[in-house]
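TL;DR need structure tokens for one chain.
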Amino acid sequence: MAAAAPTRWLDGHLDLAYLALEPASNRDMFAPIPADSTACITLPALSAARVGVALGTIFTELGGNTNDPCAYRAGDPESAHAAGVRQLEWYLDAQAKGKIRLVTTVVELDECWNNTDANAPLGVVLLMECADPIRNPEEVPWWFEQGVRVVGMAWGRGSRYCGGNAMAGGLHPIGRALVDVFDDLGMLHDTSHLSRAAFDDLLNATDRRIVATHSNAAALMPHSERHLTDVQLAAIASRDGVVGLNLFGKFLATGRPATLDDCVAHVERIAEFATSKRIALGSDFDGGFNRLDVPQEIGGPLGLDALSNALAKRGFSSAEVLGFQHENWLRVLRASLPKG
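>> reply
TL;DR here they are.
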């Protein structure tokens, strides 16, 4: 089978603001990556790889390093709120500088996607990764007005709203109230870091679409709740959601460096239970790892075409490969975002 033709990418999970603000990364997100760097992404690097739109996170870490601008103290909604606002302000500043364009409606999504100029700003759909920056459910409309369109209610260590993949517990009562407000506004639910109990509770609390922006197949990585069971994959499919393949090597294979074949194996497993229309890219590039932790055949955004070609060689049709590259995310976002 012929290799898939080069095309544009939509990445379902990138920690853009975190990487720009986190002191240890020492990252200029507006400049090319230095030749001696192990980083995967900056905005020019994404542009060179033809990434036209991405879900950019507002990521906050419960109990993280107090010197980290994305960390906050347990039991302190104000510090979580401040950490979230710092990242929101980075996105707003980047937009003011013409480096990105925040995407809040279907009209804006299509305008960004259809702008194939090499110098076009990256389209960014804001994804809140852990809902603790939202001090109470009544504050959700304010975040929606700022542009947030997707929310994962917890990071691994959980949140005031629910358990996480490393912290047991389902939806708390305040979390159920948060779901109701999300649904009233049309916020899209991200399940990637939810505990199994919280995932099940969310399914019972809403009949809306759900996604997993950066998760892999638990059948191939059964050691933690960070990955999705076959039952969870089927549940996402039943809600016409999408699963974004995470390219962190330790989420692809155990005890050895991950390979391109491991990526394809996860895609095949997810497609088996969720169909090929519901598997896409959620690279999480540089989200706590670097290019040395990515399968060496990929190595960063410029290597994404190797993944497309591998899927084509494994028997995925041209339409299925396009779905993985961008069409599946575009379908879900067009169905979820306000029209315009």
